């Protein structure tokens, strides 16, 4: 997951900087970091539950299921991005059009 994030994050931030209106790049970059920031809190809450359930201190460990679930969670983001590509592209084109009209 770290390798994927290392490859994905710079490209995403580059894209955000490219679509940001002039003078608002910093605000767009800050907002773009919000999902990453939120996942740090979300991951902390469910990772403890997964460890208790699949890797208990006493009892049978089921680490295969734990890693399968984590792999599925990691694969959700690219699938959602591919599915939402048209919607994201339409909103970007719409914002380009509105900024050109006001200029």
Q: What does this protein structure show overall?
A:
- It is a single chain.
- This protein has five helices and no strands.
- It has one domain (2-102).
- The mean pLDDT is 80.
- The chain has 103 residues and is mainly alpha-helical.
- The protein is elongated and about 60 Å long.
- The N and C termini lie far apart (42 Å).
- The chain has helices spanning 2-19, 25-32, 34-54, 63-83, 85-102.
Q: Would you spell out the secondary-structure blueprint of this structure?
A:
Blueprint: H1 2-19, H2 25-32, H3 34-54, H4 63-83, H5 85-102
Helix pairs in contact: 1-2
Shape: elongated
Largest sheet: none
- Sheet/helix structural class: mainly alpha
Q: How much strand content do the residues show?
A: under 5%
Helix-strand pattern: HHHHH
Instruction: Please estimate the helix content.
Output: over 70%
Mean of pLDDT: 80
Unreliable parts: none
- Give me the number of helical elements: 5
**Any idea how many domains?**
1
CA(first)-CA(last) distance: 42 Å
Radius of gyration: 19 Å
Strand segment count: 0
């Amino acid at each position: 997951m770290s390798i994927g994030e290392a490859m994905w994050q710079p490209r995403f931030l580059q894209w955000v900087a490219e679509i940001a209106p002039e003078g608002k790049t910093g605000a767009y970059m800050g907002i773009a970091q919000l999902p990453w920031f939120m996942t740090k809190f979300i991951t902390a809450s469910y990772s403890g539950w997964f460890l208790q359930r699949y890797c208990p201190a006493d009892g049978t460990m089921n680490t295969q299921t734990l890693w399968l679930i984590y792999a599925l969670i990691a694969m959700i983001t690219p699938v959602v991005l591919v599915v939402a590509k048209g919607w994201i592209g339409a909103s970007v084109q719409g914002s380009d059009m509105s900024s050109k009209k006001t200029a």
